Amino acid sequence: xxxxxxxxxxxxIKPTPLREKIAIAxxxxxxxxxxxxxxxxxxxxxGGTLSDLRKALDDAGLAVVSTIFLKxxxxxxxxxxxxxxxxxxxxxEIAAELGARHYIAGPPLGPVDVELGARRYxxxxxxxxxxxxxxxxxxxxxxxxxxTIEKAVDLITRCGHPEATIVxxxxxxxxxxxxxESVGTLNPEQxxxxxxxxxxxxxxxxxxxDPDRVMPGDGCLDLKGVLRSLNRIGYTxxxxxxxxNRDWWKRDxxxxxxxxxxxxxxxxxxxx
Length: 272
Prior knowledge:
By secondary structure, this protein is of the alpha/beta class. 44% of the residues lie in helices and 15% in strands. An eight-stranded parallel barrel has the order 1-2-3-4-5-6-7-8, surrounded by seven helices. The longest helix has 20 residues, at 78-97. It is globular.
């Protein structure tokens, strides 16, 4: 079996309370989890503490693979940028307190200035490293411009920082029209986390969005080929189940998490 590490992205069982998400991930057999700031902030507003969450994560045997997400770091100016960066700083400190290895930096959805983005990603990276957690740059298949692996690699190359990394995702490769073969050209150290999911061939690719993701093995994507490419480059990092599928949200969250882990392990075993 391929030597991957398996993580649960909390979006996969989104309606479930945060502490229950953590318990389910540990009980089912994941060793990592990705946390969303909306969940964490809501937990604290309701009277919980970050130290409570850290203890729950430790008790469940879970590494915090990433926290999600940071925005406004690339395309804002003036007072809007100051507010955005203050929020990024706050979220980075939360990530560090929870023991996160990375936090995910999302791109603008519209037109982008890549040179500006590279400079600002480097600034964000240096800020995060000083706090104790590293940003990983995410491309989004439904973004107007920053929507493929190739564009993300170009940005981190322009950034020129040795700790620059990318978040990868089969759905975003498919949705953005990039090449799955590009996975095989990467240095494994460039991948912070590999989100994992599948997609159907209908509705048309250009019309699909987050809720259209399906469980690995239920769609048309060549996930075996993706895993084969990861094996070929020597990637042994995190494979993280990330769905936003409302049908799976309606099911028992433990079943959803369990099925997802089983599917990922089965696909990995076939490509080992």
